[in-house]
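Example for tutorial group B:
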């Protein structure tokens, strides 16, 4: 590349990159393309803890009845819902709408867990590390680590082998 081309490229790269990024962000917002990758929250934000390495896509989190914790490298398919809320079925009308526990229904999603699309998780529940929940499943009970569950309600379909110590092939 000629010197003049390099100088022009260097001068324009900052402003041009910024302009392209801004225009792309506008188009994403206009076309609602981010709706598949932005989670939704019902309740107080401080009750939701998502590890920075986790991918939750467009999950719905309801933290009205407890906290939700999503571990390191956990990842979700689309349209996953994790709910801590419930209502008192013995109440009626407006009273039923307002009668729900404010705590004690925590959801813990462990490190490396994969929740496939359309999974529904109802607290209180813990999904152990590296477990897999098949698409469309309903999780109402704890899931052991390194386990695959499926169904409505979710039942164990397979155990996953835990990784062993790494062996040096040259040893």
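The residue assignment follows.
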């Amino acid at each position: 590349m000629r010197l003049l081309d390099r100088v022009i490229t260097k001068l324009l790269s900052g402003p041009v990159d910024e302009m392209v990024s801004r225009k792309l962000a506008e188009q994403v917002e206009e076309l609602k393309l981010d709706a598949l990758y932005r989670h939704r929250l019902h309740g107080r934000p401080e009750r939701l803890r998502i590890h920075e390495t986790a991918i939750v896509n467009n999950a719905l989190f309801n933290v009205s009845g407890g906290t939700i914790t999503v571990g390191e490298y956990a990842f979700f398919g689309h349209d996953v819902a994790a709910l801590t809320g419930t209502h008192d079925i013995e109440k009626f009308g407006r009273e039923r709408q307002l009668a729900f526990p404010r705590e004690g229904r925590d959801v813990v999603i462990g490190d490396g867990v994969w929740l496939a699309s359309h999974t529904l998780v109802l607290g209180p529940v813990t999904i152990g590390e590296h477990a897999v929940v098949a698409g469309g499943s309903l999780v109402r009970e704890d899931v052991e680590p390194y386990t695959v569950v499926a169904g409505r309600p979710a039942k164990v379909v397979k155990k996953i082998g835990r990784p062993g110590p790494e062996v040096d092939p040259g040893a």
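The helical segments are 3-30, 93-98. Compare this with the pattern of hydrophobic and polar residues in the output above.
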